[in-house]
TrEMBL record:
Organism of origin: Drosophila guanche (Fruit fly)
SUPFAM superfamilies per record: Six-hairpin glycosidases (SSF48208)
Entry keywords, A to Z: Calmodulin-binding, Carbohydrate metabolism, Cell membrane, Glycogen metabolism, Lipoprotein, Membrane, Phosphoprotein, Prenylation
Stated name of the protein: Phosphorylase b kinase regulatory subunit
Compartment(s): Cell membrane
Biochemical pathway: Glycan biosynthesis; glycogen metabolism
Amino acid sequence: MRSRSNSGVRLDYYQRIVHRLILAHQEPVTGLFPASNVNSHAWIRDNVYCILAVWGLSMAYKKIADQDEDRAKCYELEQSCVKLMRGLLMAMMNQKDKVEKFKMTQSPYDSLHAKYSSKNGLPVVEDGEWGHLQIDAVSLYLLILAQMTASGLQIVFSLDEVSFIQNLVFYIESAYSIPDYGIWERGDKTNHGEPELNASSIGMAKAALEAMNELDLFGARGGPASVIHVLADEAHKCQAVLQSMLPRESNSKELDSGLLCVIGFPAFAVDDAQLIHNTKDAILSRLQGKYGCKRFLRDGYRTPKEDPSRLYYERWELRMFENIECEWPLFFCYLILFHAFQNDKRSVQEYADRLEKIMVRSEDGTLLVPESYAVPQDLVGFEYQKPGSQLREVVGRCPFLWGQSLFILGRLLQEGFLAVGELDPLNRRLGAQKKPDVVVQVVIIAEDNEIRDKLAEHDLHVQTIAEVAPIEVQPARVLSHLYTYLGRNRKLGLSGRKSRDVGILSTSKLYSLKDRIFAFTPQFADLSRFYIASDNELMIDILKGEINFLKSAWDLLGRPLVTLVLKRIHLDQDKIPLAMIQTMRKLKSGYINGTRVMLGSLKDFLNTSAITDLSFLGSTEDGYPDRLHPDVQTYLDEHLLRSFSNRSTMNLRGGQLRPRTLRRRMSCKGAIKKTRSINVDSDNLGMEGPSPLTERRLSSVVPPPWLQANKQSHVSVFATTPEEGPSTPSLLLGNELVIRENIYPVDPHGQNRSAIDRRSEFVRQQEITVPKILIQRHRAETNFADTEVEELIAMLRETENLEEQGDILQYLVDTQGLDFNTAGLGFKNKSDDNASAVAGAGGMLEEGRVVTVRDLLKGLYEKACQQKLWGLVRHTAGMLGKRVEDLAKAVTDLLVRQKQVTVGMPPNNEHTITAPLPEGELRQLIHDAYGDDESTAMLTQELMVYLAMFIRTEPQLFHEMLRLRVGLIIQVMAKELSRTLNCDGEAASEHLLNLSPFEMKNLLYHILSGKEFAVSSVARGNLSIVSCKSSRVSKKSQIGLGDPEGEDALIATIDDRQGQWLRRRRLDGALNRVPRDFYSRVWTVLEKCQGLAIEGRVLQQSLTQEMTPGELKFALEVETALNQIPQPEYRQLVVEALMVLTLVTEHNMVPTLGGIIYVEHLVHKANQLFLEDQRKVQGDATLCCAKIKDGKEQQQAASGMLLCGGAAYICQHLYDSAPSGSYGTMTYMSRAVALVLDCVPKHGEMECAIS
């Protein structure tokens, strides 16, 4: 026998082990590994992990191949890898129809199977009989396929297989929004078969997408046709969602050891070193034991308490599994690899020693990795008492091939046979290293010479579209269309990419196609179909945001390139808007908002930009790879630079003026205003709809007349009593009695009408300006004959004022409907004969064309956009049923970052959105929630888009918020405006709806971040929101709405300083902000009492049996109970009361808190104590709630309104007290807890933990 170097001998030893433990089980026909000797099913995930040891060993042999037999061994091992990877590929290609269907439905029943028969690669269980949707398994396959290909193995043989793998990329690219069953095939941990969003799946998908991007599947011998393309934005979305989730795994699993494969080998999916560290520490501190790590908390699998006869668990039994979960040695193997890649030899050695102690020796002395260790049945009691104290026994397979394979890899690394770079030829492990600063290149192109010359006047020199040739500039939608050709394959029946979305990362590259070069403008510049795009300031703001986003997200070769075209539409009265000029000057200076930028022309940046080859557009399938696909050719020819012509807007002016009919004008005036449902005037924010639930809420809806008198000069007498419910109110106006009709069919009992109906009525009662006649929507016969409609349309022609046109059209829509034909009306009763000629000229009737109210509305909408009348724009957009382009995307962006969204006004009309919905359904849901109030429905869509922008760019604004309640946010925005402008609620909601989109986004930002702001008036009566650095500025509004003089002004200033804590509580309550770790602390309180009652909802103690403290599902339960409280400031006091209770439990003052605790009793008790103290010290509250009671006062309190207007019977001054200090709210809460709870001892000394 020839002498062999030591390393060769040692490798031969590993080769024997790999052969005996792993390769001996490989099926000769398919190349797959069965699960065990008795179970022939082959799981994708386990198979890929099994083969890693074989691949590692082949590379170790390649390095020392000093003899022919070593080369032969190396080749033999490599071919085993190829055989397995191709076996899995064949099994998946047999299910190609599923891949095609899944791109559309994303349904668990259409997913690829998670396991196949190892004998023939066919399916082994039906679609619905197993949790097949496991995105991490398909992603792991693609990731390892990419790594193996990069290491030199040839796994893919034909272009059809390339197309299939391109479609697998589409299959996983939306992983960030697809709930799946995850790495443990369970979904929700109760195992009831509910899929959920899993961080481990999203991380694996992100890794696979990055690894696959621009990879040639034929290796060094391939050409353009065998390259896989990934849209960088999809990988980035996965990354953003992953970063927002970690260290949480999913809604029901607050932590999972499976995340080790995402933060380390094989995925390396996290770029943030601190986040990697936090996730690993969380796993080690809560899941690590002597025998490995638990998979997740309360994992019942194979524990002695598990009932093996059924698959699922009852919710209450999860608590039994605490502290006795099985421990898996597999995770020690992951930790060894993790530290080996970090080059931390000490930790590698530590885990290697730990692993060695728990491995099982076979008869011939080989070390085997067992599947898991469980507590024996008879020792369970002792383990409960002292977790981690008992000896455990092996359960499950031994050797466990997944673990064994990783163990062998770890050994090869430890002994120096492999370098970490060989296991990661794509260098994914370097992702978390610091990158140099990105320079964003910006090119501005003028649509034509005229605009170029206008820019030159401001010393900004740009090229026109014609001058940048041969480079062609196209809108992003062209790129998204071209990408639909990617991955098409007739033989396999695959249709290419389905999603139409191309993000800023994709449009910031240049694209080459044969000898042409394309630049694409970003998608946000395409939004010409929606009104947000006609607000230049907002577009500039979005641009700044996108440039900032590129700075952090760009990781491709070359620099990002943003191309913008300045068009005619952007001009404001034929001038370039000032905001645009200022922004371009900033870009020219080289820095914008802290990002380095370069402004230049396209040809300057050709060499420094990323260029992608669009060669997949060739007709490869027809044998002409060099020729463009005929469909693409025609598409491009059609799209090449059509001139952007403005659509002509319809002329609403008639031929001649005629005397105005005043009576008719009155009947329409304010028609739009009457649809509004934002209510600010009632001091109890969110308590407008009288609900039949409690007398208390009911009575607070109708404010008593004496309160009304303070606000308005005239007294209104309501003909309603709380018992009747709001029937038709009659209002006293001077001496004239106006009976109003309702817009809504009146329901005599007031039971089943929505809160919206009642609310808008209530708003209307405070609107008394002109006697208005309201029309019932669904009215059989109209009050006015056709002649009235004639007069209206005649008026419509005359009036120049768009607001008036809006009111007339609103009225026409209410009476006649959107499709009412107005052609030829308004001319009949003219004496002269040239009516038809005038009609032709007036544009109302265009040669026999039908002109419906809808067409007139469209014309009005376009004019209002041009003139920037935003209130009218929002209203007409709502009536026309427009919807924000990115609405569904925006909602998904919020949901996947674990924020639920509610729309509608609380408490009765709130709808919660918990899962992504298609555009149409979303719009329907929003409009149902607001009834006839089109403006607020549009505003809701708009705000959702802004919230999604903020959560992408500034996720820190949303910390400790679980639900975003858009209805409440709108009310608080109006309330804030009414506070800053010193105006009443109706004026404030008008101001709110008239804010430009940019100012709206600005106001939302100030409310989210809690920054002080002031309002200043700009041209044309538009308002502008200004940040205040010092808190002095914000005291007096900067808008000239007749500033209160003298004494009033003084009061206003004092009030503002006083309302500070009330305002903070109101904002935090509306945004659902809670203190840090609030929900997990409430869990500890719940553990010590029988339940917590909040506003009629009881949180039962059994929730602690079912859910762990950090679980998102538990947080949502608490949140749902808190959301029953309609007034935001009252909600915040309840949160403070809960915090005091958590302090009581955390300092172990008492062993148990007793029965059900009524949290509101604590708040009311604190209020009583506060008022007693106020009487003693003669504080502010003696003016309202702490007055010495007499008969009249008693009656007033009974009617549900406090003199100071405090919500829910709590004095306004308590809401406005700081939390700390001897008169602070926390002090009163603590005293209330001591008085109300029976368990706190009443006598004797006690350590005060709260002081």
